Amino acid sequence: MRAWVNGQLLDDPTGPAVAVTDHGFTVGDGVFEAVKVVDGEPFALTRHLRRLERSAHGLGLPELDLEEVRRGVVAVLTGQELALGRIRITYTGGPAPLGSGRGSEPATLVVVADTMRPWAGPTEVVTVPWPRNEKGALAGLKTTSYAENVIALARAAERGATEAIFGNTAGNLCEGTGSNVFYVVDGELRTPTLGSGCLAGISRELVLEWYGAREIDEPVDVLERAEELFLVSTTRDVQPVRRCDGRELEAPGAVTSEVAAVWAEREREHSDP
Q: Which of residues 115, 148, 175 is at a domain's end?
């Protein structure tokens, strides 16, 4: 692991590095991106940085210096041989008085890179009763306020699953805790619209560009009649789902297999599509 904080590469990446008064630590006032590394190269970095910038703007953080972020990425990758890894970029409101109000100190920028293990084959998911608020202030932003996801993932783990699926306040299918959801009904590949409150996932975006799918908002119980279901994310790529709320699904089905094949082919073509 290598870590870079506010322009400095740390000698000890696991040691103290951020002030205890940092607003990202005290109240979750921050945004982040997770970027896959393949053979030492960050994948789709430009798209991730654009989303990081959008999230920072949406949260009201100071303007982000994307060239500085790129310097941090180079710093943490240099000297590491990552056949498969993950970069975590975190940008917070910086040190502030205790409480919700922001301070006047500069923002904090952290970049970390480490190895990553691939997900092993088809997985299991469960739906959870807590809705995403598609009209909330954080809807569509990738923030460090992840407590909801922690609770939902714990519920999923208790049931032998690796991902929890949320609906939204309208009762429609939304997203996973760290993934976007695609499903097949009557042979048609579908995924929730961004209006559902789901994150505009980079992997979601690429699947739509490279393969295509119908963006539609439907009740969560559409999963009960889905013929296929798969998750997409930076760490999962295209991962088939073999069981949803205990119901068995073909995994991978024909459509999922096609999407995964297209993904593998296109990913090899360009590291920054």
A: 115
